[in-house]
Each structure stands twice: as structure tokens, then as C-alpha cells.
Amino acid sequence: MHANQSMDDRSKRNTALDKRLEEIGWGLFLIMIGVIWLVPNAQVPKGIWLIGVAAIMIGLNAVRYLNGIKMHGFTIALGLLALAAGLGSLFGLKLPIFAILLILVGSIIIVKPLLGKKG
């Protein structure tokens, strides 16, 4: 009984932490948008918004990983896509974002069963 209760307590703590992390991520996202809107357009490098989105999504999943919480593959894929698009825009490259998205989603679909994940 004690071991099951300990696992249940850990699960509840992880669920609560994951919810707080989601809230922090949304807060960072809204603050980032507000700050970018306050700065004149000419001073904001192209692609910086996408790089910020990527940092938040990938960072959120890194914190999940470090705390033993299941990462969300979809937000990792979106974060990587946003990073690629943002860096491409920053350096003046026109990337085929939709094709990259398809590759990322397809990769997740393939890797998930190989790692023994369900659903």
C-alpha cells in the first residue's frame, strides 16, 4: 500500500507541476508578444518571434524531462519547426515549412511505436 500511495503522490505532484509549467509557458508567450509589440518593427529582427516560440516550447519540454514528466512530442515538433522557420527568416532563407512539418509529424508517428509508447 505504501509504495502505491507514494507512486500516486508522485503522479499528483507531476500533474500539478506540469499544469504550472503550462501556465508559465503561456505567461512567457504572452509577455514575449507584448514586448515584441512594444518595440518598433524596424528594431525587431525577422524571425525573432518564431525563435522565441521555439525557445518556450522546447524549454518547457526540457523542464518536463528534467522533472521526470512526459514530454509532449507535438510541442517539441512545433518548437523545432518554429526554430527552423525563425532561423531561416533571420538569415534570409525561405524554408519549405509545410514539407518540414510533414517530415516532423511523420517522424513522430514512426518513432513513437518504436519507443513503446501507446496512443
Descriptors:
flat; 119 residues; single chain; mainly alpha
Question: How does this model look, in words?
Answer:
The chain has 119 residues and is mainly alpha-helical. It has one domain (2-114). Helix content is 77%, strand content 0%. The protein is built from 4 helices and no strands. It has helices at 2-38, 48-66, 73-90, 97-114. Helix 3 runs antiparallel to helix 4 (97-114). The model has no long low-confidence stretch (mean pLDDT 88).
Please report the number of helical segments: 4
Mean pLDDT: 88
Q: Please compute the radius of gyration using only Cα atoms.
A: 18 Å
Beta-sheet strand percentage? Answer: under 5%
Shape: flat
- How many distinct domains? 1
| Count of extended strands | 0
Question: What share of residues is helical?
Answer: over 70%
Note the gap between the termini.
Answer: 29 Å
Quick synopsis:
The chain is built from 4 helices and no strands.
Write the layout of secondary structure elements.
Elements: H1 2-38, H2 48-66, H3 73-90, H4 97-114
Helix pairs in contact: 1-2, 2-3, 3-4
